[in-house]
């Protein structure tokens, strides 16, 4: 269940400061959406592209719940990637409607779409996502998890069949976990960025706050350390955040729908909750480069994912 959490930093030259850029080369900047069904590796790819973890990942479907922006500036080009929740059709609760709306609203604004699949697989859920992609935008097909493909020879006919489904701008089989693949992807994407000024500072990584990242990191540990028995509707809310010099005092609640779920998270003798807290604290200390005191609570709020109002209260746009 534990996974390597640090993404490979893409092997790109350090971006020169703006003042050293050749002024005769125009700046480029573009919005690139990352879409696909749940669990294909969208967030893993985003983190690899940014060179730092900005979006949480797990082997459970529907890990990502928000639109998350990750930024990478290389020489004159600023890539603004938008990670999205895996498009979901199975359930129809308010949470899912909200997640799907997020995907739709992202697609309206972007210059380019990365449509992520698992290499060699194209199911109904992948087809549904494909049918949502706008006709008038270039779409790059990413066949991810190439490292997991046993029979490479079968990939060529699969790619050919994919080419018949839509006029894709590019086909890129890769592994989001392989540094050289990620470097190659930047070169492929750069020509699609429009010539225009940058939207973010040169060293920006994300538009999300530390507080948001903290709640997400706790949710990641929760997802990774509980089995499939924990419904995906559990969420995390930061109740208190105090900076005392180098020390951060954070108090957070894990919100679940049933008493039984509360027991699963706490575990026997409180062991599981302790482990979630301690793994989250270590990662937060690494992210914030300072000591963190983390207090975790578990609360039951039945039906929170079923009403749109509650979903909004918990920070889903
Ligand atoms: N073998 C292999 N596994 C990968 C690769 N990329 C991602 N994964 C794994 O696939 C699982 C899902 O990754 P995520 O990045 O969370 O997937 P996602 O598409 O963002 O999922 P949702 O947010 O739920 O829509 C995790 O267990 C990753 O470690 C890859 O290139 N190779
Ligand atoms: Mg994700």
Task: Count the DSSP helices.
Answer: 9
Q: What percent strand?
A: 15-25%
The fourth-level CATH homologous superfamily of the largest domain is P-loop containing nucleotide triphosphate hydrolases
Radius of gyration: 20 Å
**Helicity level:** 25-40%
Poorly predicted ranges: 1-16
CATH topology of the largest domain: Rossmann fold
Averaged pLDDT, please? 87
Q: Tell me the number of strands.
A: 9
Q: What topology, given as strand order, has the largest sheet?
A: 2-3-1-4-5-6
Bound molecules: guanosine-5'-triphosphate, magnesium ion
**Which structural class fits the helix and strand makeup?**
alpha/beta
Which shape, going by the Cα principal axes? globular
CATH class assignment of the largest domain: Alpha Beta
Compute the separation of the termini in Å. Answer: 30 Å
Count of distinct structural domains: 2
Assembly level? single chain
What sequence of helices (H) and strands (E) makes up the elements?
EHEEHEHEHEHHEEHHEH
Taking the sheet with the most strands, its summary is: 6 strands, mixed
CATH architecture annotation of the largest domain: 3-Layer(aba) Sandwich
Question: What does the model show?
Answer:
The chain is of the alpha/beta class and 317 residues long. Helix content is 32%, strand content 21%. Strands 2-3-1-4-5-6 form a six-stranded mixed sheet, sandwiched between helices. Helix 6 (210-225) runs antiparallel to helix 8. Residues 3, 36, 38-44, 57-59, 61-64, 85-86, 144-145, 147-148, 175-177 line the site of guanosine-5'-triphosphate. Residues 42-43, 55, 63-64 line the site of magnesium ion.
């Amino acid at each position: 269940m534990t996974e390597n959490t640090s993404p490979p930093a893409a092997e790109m030259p350090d971006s020169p400061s703006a003042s050293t850029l050749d002024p005769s080369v125009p700046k480029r900047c573009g919005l690139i959406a990352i879409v696909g069904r749940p669990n294909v590796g969208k967030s893993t790819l985003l983190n690899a592209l940014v060179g730092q973890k900005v979006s949480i990942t797990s082997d459970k479907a529907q890990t990502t719940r928000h639109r998350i922006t990750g930024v990478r500036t290389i020489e004159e080009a600023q890539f603004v990637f938008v990670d999205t929740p895996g498009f979901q059709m199975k359930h129809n609760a308010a949470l899912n409607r909200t997640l799907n709306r997020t995907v739709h609203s992202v697609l309206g604004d972007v210059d380019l779409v990365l449509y992520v699949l698992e290499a060699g697989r194209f199911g109904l859920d992948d087809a549904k996502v494909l049918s949502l992609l706008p006709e008038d935008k270039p779409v790059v097909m990413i066949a991810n998890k190439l490292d997991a493909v046993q029979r490479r020879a079968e990939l060529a006919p699969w790619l050919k069949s994919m080419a018949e489904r839509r006029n894709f701008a590019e086909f890129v089989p890769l592994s989001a976990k392989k540094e050289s693949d990620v470097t190659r992807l930047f070169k492929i994407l750069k020509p699609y960025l429009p010539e225009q000024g940058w939207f973010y500072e040169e060293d920006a990584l994300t538009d999300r706050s530390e507080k948001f990242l903290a709640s997400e990191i706790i949710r990641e540990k929760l997802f990774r350390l509980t089995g499939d028995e924990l419904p995906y509707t559990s969420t995390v809310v930061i109740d208190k955040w105090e900076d005392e010099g180098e020390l951060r005092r954070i108090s957070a609640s894990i919100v679940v729908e049933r008493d039984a779920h509360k027991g699963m998270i706490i575990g026997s003798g409180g062991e599981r909750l302790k482990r979630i807290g301690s793994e989250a604290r270590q990662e937060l200390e690494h992210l914030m480069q300072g000591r963190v005191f983390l207090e975790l609570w578990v609360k039951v709020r039945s039906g929170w994912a079923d009403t749109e109002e509650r979903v909004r209260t918990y920070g889903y746009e």
